[in-house]
Amino acid sequence: MVKLSVIVPFYNVQQYAPDTLHSLRANARSDFEFVLVDDKSTDRTPELLERALDSLPGARLVRHERNGGLATARNTGIDAARGEYLTFLDGDDWYGPGYLPRLVAAIEDMGTDFVRVDHVQCTGRTRNVIRVPHGRRGVALKARDAILPADRSTSVDYPYAWAGIYHRRLLDAGLLHFPDGLRTAEDRPWIWRLHRKAETFGVAELFGIFYRRGVTTSLTQIGDVRQLDFIRSFDQVIAEVSEDPDADRFLPKAVRTYCAIIAHHLGNIERFEPQVARKLKSMSAAALRRLPQDVLADALDSMDLERSVKIRRLRWRIPADGTAAA
Length: 326
What we know:
By secondary structure, this protein is an alpha/beta fold. 40% of the residues lie in helices and 17% in strands. The protein has helices at 17-25, 45-52, 70-80, 99-110, 168-172, 187-197, 229-242, 247-267, 274-290, 293-302, 305-315, and strands at 4-10, 32-38, 59-63, 85-88, 94-95, 114-117, 119-123, 126-130, 141-142, 164-167, 200-204, 209-212. The strands form 2 sheets. An 8-stranded mixed β-sheet has the order 3-2-1-4-10-6-11-9, sandwiched between helices. A 4-stranded mixed β-sheet has the order 5-12-7-8.
């Protein structure tokens, strides 16, 4: 059996794909496979991927007939994966040499369902280490125990799918696929589901994944309507957490995080196109009205003044149909 499947979606990253592919070569092993997914790129990315098949051991190329977004591309790779373990890399990021063998060793040593790792955030020439917000490292832990507390950053606030490795039994249990069609925040329902449904996880003291921040083609840098998919994403988090046996414990965390993300987007509203900015406000106001109002009130009371004021003002925004907020 293939030991590790590395799923790498690519979309119009001709400038960065050579570095990504080079880093995969520096991590190749006879029992590793690299599932390269071309999400209907319109630049030279498909040509680069085609050429990589001759020089990257274990490489397989899957092509989309139309662009489906990151979540859909990852799902395509998951469906094609044959490995005992799975991990992810985005087409504009890269690995340090020898990182993947150490990643596999980490999950085998801990014997957990999944393992999370720190990463290096790269903005131009600046490098910053971003750490998993969980203190205990190198030991097996209960996945559900890492969700709380509500008022501090925890592992569910570190959603990056590429910052970890996942046992195939999670795929067999239906836990590894992403919400199809989401164009941003696709990893939020995903990480919540992992921590609620998986048995064990661990955090490895391991560096080697480099995340390229500030890429102009990244959705995090583009203020168009696709950014608003975070509302669909968090609506799914709220719906699934509401059905959890521990909903009364976990909902305050989910609602508080949702509010924090809304406040973040409101604080950067100038980067959105005017019509998208208006839609952001109206959709966010409607989302706030859908939340359990008692939990929302408690969440706002626990937030800092600047963010809570933004949310309180939006909460009472009159919707387009003229009805008052609930």
